Amino acid sequence: MDNTAIFITPEAVADLLGTSLTWVYSKSxxxxxxxxxxxxIGRYLRFERDAVIAWARxxxxxxxxxxxxxxxx
Length: 73
Hints:
Structural class: alpha+beta
Number of domains: 1
Strand order of the largest sheet: 1-3-2
Shape: globular
Oligomer: single chain
Radius of gyration: 12 Å
Helix content: 40-55%
Strand content: 5-15%
């Protein structure tokens, strides 16, 4: 099994969680309480897919339920 992380764009995160792109950018700011885990690469923002899924599940909100319904386990 390959241990390579899969990095996705903010647009892909919005699609994965069923939210708007604006919401993703807002939740990824460091000053947010419990921010969405993100990595800055220069001016670009990227997300580790598994970390986003774990974050959504730890929040216990509807986003985590949408991730589960999307077939992510």
